[in-house]
Design brief:
Elements lengths: L1 E2 L2 E2 L6 H28 L3 H5 L13 H8 L11 H32 L4 H12 L3 H15 L5 H25 L3 H9 L4 H9 L4 H16 L3 H6 L7 H10 L7 H34 L3
Antiparallel strand pairs: 1-2
Helix pairs in contact: 1-13, 3-13, 4-7, 4-10, 4-12, 5-7, 7-10, 10-13, 12-13
């Protein structure tokens, strides 16, 4: 209710104070480590050794960032984390495109075409989504070795597609199941087939859901360590694996500023994707990502 003086101020109750305190505590748990990483990456080693972990840098420098990108040692190779960055990009782009495309087709088929055994297949996909990755590692190593794909770029793309397919299928199936069935029936009456309906009707309506899928897949694939370490091969090691090598293969003095800069560089892509498309992510969730 509003009066002549505008809306009435919300009273500050004990429950509201508790909510604000909880939100502030939760935010601090995430933001304080991020703050420490940022300020440490801008300090010299002399200043870090002085023990001012929470203090702002007295003389900020980007030299640790340059070293992390161009000359940090990832084992015996001292070409910086940029090598892992481009490896991650090379893995990420086809993995995201293929896994989302497969998930969209599966979800569309399960929602509208009612193929024989669809319910059983959908149940198996759900079960597969909850089985831990390490359970599949050894069988997949043997399968990819037999196919000649182990340690190759097509092999790691196939692995990410397999592990992304259950979640992507559930997202698109639930989204399409919430659309009016009349759209599908009208297209069928007009003579449209499987692919024509998908490409001309369903996908143009799926922009919020595609953005949700992109965010989830970019975050999951870019941040992956285990699958990249096992299946990518030496020539395709992603950024997360090379970051681990930077942190764990230091000889002599440990350069904390370089390690923090390398960590922030590794986290930059999923953070940028989320912040640039966060509004679409919320819209996609509201549009049916969690509907049954």
């Amino acid at each position: 209710m509003t009066g002549p003086a505008g809306p009435r101020p919300t009273p500050l109750t004990l429950s509201r104070v508790a909510i604000y305190a909880m939100l502030a505590t939760t935010a601090a748990l995430f933001l304080v480590p991020l703050y420490v990483m940022i300020v440490t990456s801008l300090k010299t080693m002399d200043e870090i050794r002085a023990g001012t972990i929470l203090g702002l840098p007295l003389a900020a420098t980007v030299e640790p960032w340059i070293k992390a990108w161009t000359s940090a040692c990832t084992g015996l190779n001292c070409e910086g984390i940029r090598v892992g960055f481009w490896n991650s990009v090379t893995i990420l782009v086809p993995s995201v495109v293929v896994s989302i495309a497969v998930g969209a087709v599966n979800g569309y088929a399960l929602a509208f075409w009612r193929v024989p055994g669809a319910n059983v297949l959908f149940t198996l996909l759900l079960v597969g989504a909850f089985i831990p990755y390490p359970v599949f590692v050894f069988p997949l190593v043997r399968i990819l070795s037999g196919l000649g794909l182990y340690g190759s770029l097509p092999g790691i793309v196939l692995i990410h597609t397999i592990f992304g397919m259950p979640v992507m299928t559930v997202l698109f199936r639930n989204f399409y199941a919430g659309l009016p069935i009349e759209l599908f029936k009208a297209a069928r009456v007009d003579g449209a087939g499987f692919l024509r309906i998908l490409v001309s009707i369903m996908l143009p309506m799926s922009t919020p859901m595609i953005v949700v899928a992109v965010i989830l897949q970019v975050t999951g694939i870019w941040n992956d360590f285990l699958l990249g370490l096992v299946f990518a091969g030496r020539e395709n090691l992603p950024m997360t694996v090379q970051l681990n090598n930077i942190v764990n293969s230091t000889q002599g003095e440990r350069a904390y500023n370089v390690e923090m800069a390398a960590t922030l560089l590794t986290a930059a892509v999923p953070l940028a994707v989320y912040f640039l498309s966060g509004r679409w992510f919320v819209r996609g969730i509201a549009a049916g990502a969690v509907k049954g």
